[in-house]
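agent> Task received from the user: take the single chain below, predict its 3D structure, and emit structure tokens. No templates, no multimer pairing.
agent> Plan: (1) validate residues, (2) run structure prediction, (3) serialize to tokens, (4) report one or two observations.
agent> Step 1 OK, no nonstandard residues flagged.
tool_call: predict_structure(input=
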Amino acid sequence: MGYQTIIYQAGETSASIFLNRLEAMNAINAAMVAELEDALGEAAGRPLLRALVLSGKGRAFCVGADLKFVLGELMGRGSLREGFLSDVKRMMGRLADFPAPVIAAVNGPALAGGLELLLCCDMVVAAESAVFGDAHSNYGLLPGGGSSVRLPVRIGLNRARELLFLGESRSAAEMERWGLVNRVVPDGELEEEVGRILGRLEGKSPLVLRTMKSLVNRARTMAEEDALWMEIDALDGHRLSEDMQEGLRAFRERRAPVFRGR
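)
tool_result: status=success, residues=262
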């Protein structure tokens, strides 16, 4: 489909989604939610995909929900379990559960809903001028896209409380120290660094990457003993895969493996 609020690009081993509402600093509205969900569905169906990149065009990654759009819904009488926030929850869940690793390439401010978007990603690479924060408390609002749930998991309870309660923006360097950001790079080198990561992932088995991500995500909500058995069971099934056999052959033959996701 033709997209109005995002740019979607897909190749055999990687795909990219760029938020593209430049006039609104990539604020999230209903059209963007629907288009993100559509693009995520298309990308998830690519069997050889090793990674998905989520970034923003222009000066921002995403500054949150478009308040001009959501104020009517917030002030209405209907339940928020239906409508826009329900759609946001479903889209965020689809991003968090995307089968391949998702890399957030943060080119500028990631605030409120923008922070909630990157909390659904597996790795965060940020330009050094990028800033991060949850500004809901500054405007008498509560989060509605998952930051009160996902932020403590990523940076710990005390630091999550600080960001949520104070509503302050923090630098990429500080967020790297806090564990939210994996890598900080100079402005102008973000695309190059993400390209290097994609290059490393391209040589991995897409089957392994998908299974590893599923194991990590599911283990968070399980008892440790159950999660450890889940890992062994996954390996038990994986040892029959073509990718594992190819990896072992390549090791013996001292060559790079060629994985086919089977």
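agent> Step 4: summary for the user.
The domain at 6-202 is CATH 3.90.226.10 (2-enoyl-CoA Hydratase; Chain A, domain 1).
agent> Done.
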